[in-house]
Design brief:
The chain has 141 residues and is of the alpha+beta class. It is built from three helices and seven strands, in the order βααββββββα. Strands 1-7-6-5-4-3-2 form a seven-stranded antiparallel beta sheet. InterPro entries: ASHA1/2-like_C, START-like_dom_sf.
């Protein structure tokens, strides 16, 4: 089963792409709640390249590596990757009237309900939106 989520971001496609693909930026948004963090992010953004984002509870009680391999890259258009559990993800970046729409489609896993997965991924996407838009505010200040 595939799940698709999306969000509109008031920022240019280039700014959105930069925050999505830069390790120092990824650590600021790649977690689903305030109790979690992403202390490290490694990314080799080429087809066949790998990524590893460390996800940890801030209290140190648990953590895991979110890892995978890029299968297709279209600069400022889309990123396709396969997670280490062989599920596939497609992220699309689209120009819209007030900025950029990010659309993520991912294969669901069997441990959590589809709605739990949708909500978790949406929370991460909301953090991403906040990071991108706050960077835009910093530029204009």
């Amino acid at each position: 089963m595939e799940i698709t989520i999306d969000i509109d971001i008031e920022a240019s496609l280039n700014d959105v792409w930069h925050v999505w693909t830069t390790p120092e930026e990824i650590t600021h948004w790649n977690f689903a709640s305030d109790e979690w963090c992403c202390p490290t992010a490694k990314i080799h953004l080429v087809e066949g390249g790998k990524f590893n984002y460390r996800m940890e509870a801030k209290d140190g009680s648990m953590g895991f590596d979110f890892e995978g391999q890029f299968t297709k890259i279209e600069l400022c258009k889309s990123i396709h990757y396969k997670m280490d559990d062989d599920r596939h993800v497609k992220v699309e970046f689209r120009n819209i009237a007030k900025g950029t729409k990010v659309v993520e489609t991912f294969e669901a896993e069997s441990e959590h309900s589809a709605e739990q997965q949708r909500q978790g991924w949406l929370c991460i996407l909301a953090n991403f939106k906040q990071r991108v838009e706050s960077k835009g505010e910093e530029k204009s200040a």
